[in-house]
Amino acid sequence: MKNILITGGAGFIGSHVVRLFVNKYPEYKIVNLDKLTYAGNLENLKDIENVSNYAFVKADICDFESVSNVFAKYSINGVLHLAAESHVDRSIKDPFTFAKTNILGTLSLLQAAKECWKENYSDKLFHHISTDEVYGALQFDETLFTEQTKYNPHSPYSASKAGSDHFVRAFHNTYGLPVVITNCSNNYGPYQFPEKLIPLFINNICNNKPLPVYGKGENVRDWLYVIDHARAIDLIFHKGRTGETYNIGGFNEWKNIDLIKVIIKTVDKFLGRAEGESEKLITYVTDRAGHDLRYAIDSSKLKNELGWQPSLQFEEGIEKTVKWYLENRQWLDNVTSGAYKQYYEEYYEYRDKK
Description:
- By secondary structure, the protein is an alpha/beta fold.
- The protein contains twelve helices and twelve strands.
- The strands form three sheets. It has a seven-stranded parallel β-sheet with strand order 3-2-1-4-5-6-10, with helices on both faces. A three-stranded mixed β-sheet has the order 7-9-11.
- It is globular.
């Protein structure tokens, strides 16, 4: 029996990981701990909220006492740590929140694990999910990020994630805590909060709103379908080597402007519009401060050691993604309007009556 704590499980990536583990491992107890900030949405998990091997706890990872109580109550022996502030633009405006949540929150979880496990580390694991942005930026003629690439974060967000990575390694080296770190590329897919590029643009195209493009749209990102990412996390959690780092990338590099045109073409097709009709919505805006030119991950280690590779190419993944958002307009409307927050109150009222 494994009792697994998944932090940030009401968020975009976290909800996919929670759903995968709850459905795939009925013998496990999956505990979802989430503060329910603006990006946490329990509607993402309505399909599993009453499954017997699932429990939800509303708590802040920075609250060490609450985190320790969860470890004790559920006899946690595995951690998948996804809770984080993750939007670069927000980090530029409010770096303190990112430092607190991403660094001190991770430290709180590490210390709780160390104290709860009391150096009895057999069958224990702390899996920290991080980002490729800790590596800095690549030029167009440079090779891909590998697990040996030196850290060179350029934004408050990536600096806070780099700090959390270093704390995870420090607890492994200092206390012997069994850890693994994964650094992933840009995720996309269902349930992503529409401040991020792909769902934002899908929503704006549907509503004939401007599509703001930083600079000339020349920045390059590697895109990873979120369900492929969840599969990789599952594989690494169960079969990865303790103390190792694994990069998870989609082998899908796209310039932002080319990506946007694919989204436009796909949404226009589903809406019955003329091909490229919505390109008129593209609006070039002043580039973001510290906007890294290119990210691209080499996932060879993960492929060679554990046999993982992405299941979808971007064009196929974006079709599935666009179709999901168009078929789930109520979810999108609830998020953009803020109505999704009402579900929290209904959920707790229902849970407290049980």
